[in-house]
Design a protein that fits this description.
- Helices cover 16% and strands 40% of the residues.
- By secondary structure, it is an alpha+beta fold.
- The protein has one domain.
- It is elongated, with a radius of gyration of 21 Å.
- The termini are far apart.
């Protein structure tokens, strides 16, 4: 009888300690503040502020399935990103969003 309880406890421990493999670990928190719709060479996309980073970045495009309503800005997000390119003429940096979750 005692061994059945030990097996049950071990089984429950394994079940509850398993992670969801589809769950994404996000690197950064940020705020999408506005849409940059100016008509300059490097102006386009959403402006995002990454937490603990002094720069504002532009998001050229969002991942498939993600839509943002401009009327709801600013929006808090969790993101995985990397630097895509920089427009040196006016100092705008674009980032590539690998994963995003609207909070």
């Amino acid at each position: 009888m005692k061994s059945k309880w030990i097996i049950l406890i071990l089984l429950l421990t394994v079940i509850f300690s398993c992670k969801n493999e589809n769950q994404i670990e996000f690197e950064s928190n940020g705020i999408i503040t506005q849409l940059d719709n100016r008509l300059c060479q490097c102006c386009r996309g959403y402006i995002i502020q990454i937490e603990d980073d002094k720069n504002n970045y532009r998001i050229g495009s969002l991942p498939d399935g993600i839509q943002i309503n401009q009327d709801e800005l600013p929006i808090n997000v969790k993101v995985n990103w990397d630097l895509q390119s920089t427009c040196e003429a006016i100092g705008i940096s674009y980032i590539n969003i690998e994963a995003i979750e609207i909070r």
